[in-house]
Amino acid sequence: MTPNAASASSGPSRRSFLASTAVATAAVAGGMPLLSACGGSDSGSRDGTTSGKDAKKILPTYVASNVVKPDIPSKNGSAMGFTSKLDIATLKTSVPKKLGKGGKVTVMAPFWGSPPKQNNPYYTAMNDLIGVDVQWRNQDGNTYDQKVGAVLASSDIPDVVVVPSWNMMGKIPSAIMSKFADLGPYLSGDKVKEYPNLAAIPSDAWRRSIFGGKLMGLPMPAGYVPNIVPLYRRDIFDKEGYEIPRSADEFMALCKEITNPRAKRWACGDMKWTAFSNFGVLGGGEKPLWWNLVDGKLINRIETPEYLEAIEWTRKLFAAGVVHPNFKLGKSQIGDPAPKFAAGEFLIWNNDMSNWYVQQASLMAQNPDVKVWGMDIWGHDGGDPTLYATMPANIFAFVNKKAAESVIRDVLAVANVTAAPYGTKEWMMTNYGVEGTHYTLKDGAPVKNDKGNNEVNNAYVFVASPAATIAHPDLPEYTKAQVEWQQRMGAFTKKSSFWGMQITEPSRYTNLANDFEQLEDDIIRGHKKISDMQQAISDWKSKGGDKLRDWYKKLLDENGSAAS
Known about the structure:
InterPro entries: Bact_solute-bd_prot1, TAT_signal. By secondary structure, the protein is of the alpha/beta class.
């Protein structure tokens, strides 16, 4: 699990992570609504997806925000970038009056790192701005799937539960549709105009928020370009003369050159997610993105040679001893790798795009010479990479079905503030906190202090976020670097067949692929063999994988492919 940190970059997600930064404008191809096509609304089934005319009836009206013109326009699916100074004195107001009525709202959300105390100055200031007493139930992001499952199976469900798409496995999708409220009566069509910042969220992100034919999620818009970046300590690379690798072989050679256990230095962390990109593996955490139509046949990523090759290459990194020892532990035992990265114990780290800024801001507070940078994704053979677009939204906030209308209205008041665009007072508070407490102005630009880096982190942006934007007023160089990285990688990014669709698989298939991530991790750590994966793939096919293929093919026949 990548630490999904909320920074001034909206739209973080884990693999599609946090994540989490470009506005994808292409709509999913229309057609017959899949609720009737597969299982059918008449039969009471909520499997499939909702698209075409049915989706249009549910979607909020899109009303673009034009508060600030970007310094770096979107290109190749990149985020918009803002590099000019943010004049605090001239910030616009996007929420002229408090919409919150002073009620209390409990929110359960994932948190990567050490969560701050409940009544800290950031939470207090945000709640005062919104007019709602938000009480956080932050949970460890690394084991969040277990917590979500337990909470949804209980009778004690908070008013709001944040669920990343990569945690929507097993019984969780059906629980979402049975335990959470339909927000359509408050947001569909022109009703959303009561909440202008929510109206400015791209329609593709809202389309992804339709579950079982109802608008149920408040989305965190994600980027089109894959968001996992191989971050590296450029300051140390420059000092030691290390060159950026351009192939799998070059990467291995570099890692061996860097690693010196006696000096307490290793090359990298677990590079599996980057390997998937290097080898052109389909999708990410989203099971619909694991499927793609190739030469008339629908294939799953686990059936491709690239999938096994990526796992085997990652295994070789571990076997060569170039991976920091902490990463040999299970994901629930790894802890926070950031201090090891800061200390230079390892120099290359898979991470979400949003954490690029977070790491730089945190580390330079300790050492002004630190420079965290992002490597371009390279093809494993030294050629151009083949990348697949992430879903337009991957993290959603759901409201308890038992919540009173007053609570729902208060939740929407929270979301309308947290979805405020760059250049507004609401955006500034959400992303930087309180001046003098969480940040100071340096040459007119806000710079977070340690308290700001700790408290103004994760939290509120998970309720809802604006259209994907990258803006770090204190580090404009990093805004430019992030957007340009996306633009370069966007040139090699394409959609797979089910891009943009929110798909609910039939319950009989939902557990089919649940064990694959653990098996991947066991193989790369040397606990299992590639032959174990090959057997698991064979079992997957015979136990329902081939039938699931037929089911997805029918969705494709009815809705058309999003691939372009």
